[in-house]
Amino acid sequence: MELLITSAGIAFNFLKRSVPGLLIGIFIAELLIEKGAVEKVSFIGKPFVKLSNLPGECALTFATAFLNTRAANAMLVDFYREGKIGRRELYIASLMNAFPAMVRHWNSLIPVLLATLGKLGLLYFGILVFIGLIQTTVFAVAGKILIKNPREISNPQKQMRKKKPFKEVLRNALTKTKKTSLPILKTMVIVAYITALLIAVGFFNHLSDLVRSFAQSLPFSPEELSVALSAMAGSIAAYTLGANLLKAGLISEKALIRALLLGSIFANITFLRVLIPYYVGLYGPKDGTKLMLISMTTRSVIILCIIAVMGVVL
């Protein structure tokens, strides 16, 4: 009984933080659709969408991801459930949001990185954005190969000519928000509780211990590994520890960047607690799990390649 109560508390705390942002994101997405905002902002994503053979309206979701990733992904789910895009387009469009999603975090990451690492922090953020750009490009090229007959969702020109009263726009957006969010929330609540049970029984702590044991066999110095492993406790912990080691002359700038990048892979174990309910709640158990694993694996491979190049070239 105590385990069930503890799990319920963990799940409630997660949902308390996540649900409001999700609902706001879905509402923003529906409002943008109702307002016919495709032509106003989609130019940002058009080059990537054109390369990937996605429908032109997916440029809106790409542009929206720079402001709110949840809104962008909710918009894609809405398109998919209405039959406007297929599963293949859903996967490609969602995975392509890696670059804008990374840029989106500038306001929370840059102040912390500057405060702890100074100019080196800016360089590290630039590398993270570059990794996101590579991810987006990889999936855009995959779309070019996999999507043979790109479809059009609607005619943006007609959409722009039909101006609706704001009250009607607001009413329609609220109605569609309710329709879209209810099935997502039902799944998210269930998955959040299951994830909370796993947290309560120590499943993720066990995974972290396995990663720590595995890390000892990697070709990195003790200082690098200490920074990388501290990322599982939180990015700020890794930045602070890295800054102190750098100041004491115990680690070089290159080694610290490598350690932080490796740490961002290790941190996936911690992020699973949040990512599982989010992905499964939004996309469903099958598609959500696949998208999460594809995204994490692709990003990890790119990071490992960059670490390897840094070790050889720099």
From TrEMBL:
Keywords recorded for this protein, A-Z: Membrane, Transmembrane, Transmembrane helix
InterPro entries membership: MJ0871-like (IPR038880)
Claim: Acetylation is one of the keywords in the record: no
Positions of transmembrane segments: 122-147, 184-205, 225-246, 258-280, 292-313
Domain of life: Archaea
Entry annotated with the keyword Transmembrane helix: yes
Protein name: Nucleoside transporter/FeoB GTPase Gate domain-containing protein
Organism in which the protein naturally occurs: Thermococcus barophilus (strain DSM 11836 / MP)
